[in-house]
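Worked Example 4.2. Consider the chain below.
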Amino acid sequence: MRVLVTGGAGYIGSHVCKALAAAGMEPVTLDNLSQGTAKAVKWGRLIEGDVADTDLVAESLRQSEAEAVMHFASSASVAESVQDPAAYYRNNVSGTLSLLDAMRRTGVRRIVFSSTSAIYGETRHLPIPEEAPAAPLSPYARSKLMVEAILADEAAAHGLTYLALRYFNAAGADPEGETGDQRRTATHLIPMAFKALSGKPNVLRSSAMTTPPPMAPASATMSMSATSPRAISWPSTI
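Applying the procedure from the previous section yields the following structure tokens:
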């Protein structure tokens, strides 16, 4: 199976491409390299471009003969989304609409969407059950919830099959060292905590934390990525 992976040159996307290749699938990366790097594309080929370019996405789907899409291309900073919400709705929501238009043109009906557990807001349910009420607190989280609603509507109207992965604070790297987090600025809790532990000043502050949050294992990103082949085969394997 060939899979178009948007954002496949990024942190999580590159781990997913490795997991897909290990499962005998053929990933094809579509990435504008605004956040990722071409060096991370080691599994399958790279198509440099933006999901907002509907014609390019459609041609990429045709040329690659992709049967499914895994959508990781998005803006993902909560603080930045508060400062510039329009940019987040434009990239995350409008970009996904462009991708879905291209999928309809080419008859691709299966997508796995990288959502976020931030859609739950400050929930008191721990661990968070899927059915917990959504209460997003930032434009970033709201943009992801909007996309989930769009996917549900597309499924009802056009027979789209979709799966939304809700997670946050992904951390760690490929145990074999072939890919990892290459972002220059850390904005997520776990990498910031490790920077604070390494002695770098002013990287982590909290005014209300009385007990440490649960920490993900160092291989959390690779463990999550390893589920990707099963996710893309949904509903037959999940």
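The chain has one domain: 2-171+216-232. The mean pLDDT is 85. Compare this with Example 4.1 before moving on.
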